[in-house]
Specification:
Helix content is about 55%, strand content about 10%. It is of the alpha/beta class. The strands form two sheets. A five-stranded mixed β-sheet has the order 1-4-7-5-6, covered by helices on one side.
Length: about 260
Amino acid sequence: MTRRIAFEGIDNFRDFGDYAARQRRLKRGVLYRSAHPGRATDADLAKLAAMDIAVVVDLRRANEREREPSRRWPGFAAQVIENDIGQDSADEWHVFMAGSDLSVGSFRRYMEDYYRHAPFQRRHLDLYSRYFRALAATDGAVLVHCAAGKDRTGILCALTHHLAGVHDDDIREDYLLTNDHERMTARLPLMRQYVREDTGRLASDEALMTAMRVEAEYLDIAFAVMREAHGSLDGYLEQALGLDEALRAQLHDRLLA
């Protein structure tokens, strides 16, 4: 199947369903992921309106939501999951950018450190937990997004796949679909502008591509720290996010065809 869904102003939009799972298969047209919809065109909004999206999970911080407010389609009635937890602490990305030499290595080290800590941030624990409960309770589709739809979104979608019983190889393959060279090349000018506005400096194309990419090692780091803290990914889902057997069974029935 073609997982990527083209929009005019929404980047990295994909269906992350329709994988083999537990001798069954994830449903198609139920699980969507993307970058933020702040630049959605009217045509994009009409397309979203036709997708029966009942829950929108916005993983961005408040300052990100204020900078790029989400556009909504006429008659929008979906449940929106977001929070302002941790807003009294610094934005990790902007702190990093202020002190970074903007090298390839600095971006990789930042991402490795980010994935080491992201699974345990209070705001993510709240958002991830609420997402799974909403996913179990709704009959419509769910859209998960952050700013770029790659890191915060990538971890949550990978956890969804694990919970559903998707094979590790497919989990990794889906996560790496963010690395579409044509898409990232088209985004280079915008990324260059963001970095220049944040720092007053220019970064090389190689460094910018590193910042826009995901690497299998990043997801491996996130999963490793979850296992270290909770014994297994299932332990993380139960102990950190509160997903008991009853809720997991409900999610299986909801997600699997």
